């Protein structure tokens, strides 16, 4: 059975309507996708960093409770667990702005992760801001290259929120490096528009992605589009009751893992 290694940010999210907190939960697209994959009874290891504080320990407890292996989560003594404030539009319920508090960015000696072993049929899911963070780039890239050499399948989820990264052009060289090493790329329409300034998935695949990757999925509000080499195309209805991490986990489980098994 394939093991899944999820590499991305882990933080503590607080959602506010106006100035009133309404929810608090472990955050990070990769982290929550890892939890959903574990709920589907996959063997999942999370690789990330947290502070060695009460929030970091709580997130570790939640991951363990969900069956996610935390061996590769670094509990740093030199930083506090990142916290993200999400501000909701009361009319739509959508996040209009994010504000993140993080002191890891000042710690160049951080990211002291003990990487998991990699086997041929393993899956590495990576992405988010961590995948373009200069501070951790060298160690992350060494791991991704090792996973590629071991013939693991690499799935790249960019997942950048515009309020977190105002100038995407500064990290485009790193994004293209990530695309080049990945086997599969999964975006949302919001991320596709932000990174490539395109809403047409076919054009985005032809102009920006086809040179780098074999398989491209884009998650829209009501459907998922797939593009592959040789003009392969599939439009998949999306179960709209699923939140994004659950949709991503379902996509990895039903469309990517099943293909790798074959």
Strand order in space, largest sheet: 5-4-1-8-9-10-11-12-13
Under the CATH scheme, which class?
Alpha Beta
Described by the principal axes of the CA atoms, the overall outline is globular
Q: What is the fold named in CATH at topology level?
A: UDP-N-acetylmuramoyl-L-alanine:D-glutamate ligase
Determine the mean pLDDT.
89
Please provide the count of β strands. 13
Low-pLDDT stretches are none
User: Which architecture does the CATH hierarchy give at level 2?
Assistant: 3-Layer(aba) Sandwich
Helical residue percent? 25-40%
Count of helical segments? 7
- Count of domains: 1
SSE series = EEEHEHEEEEHEHEHHEEEH
Strand content: 25-35%
**Major β-sheet annotation:** 9 strands, mixed
Counting helices, strands and paired strands, the structural category is alpha/beta
First-to-last CA distance: 12 Å
The CATH superfamily is Ribokinase
If you compute it from the alpha carbons, what radius of gyration comes out, rounded to the nearest whole angstrom? 18 Å
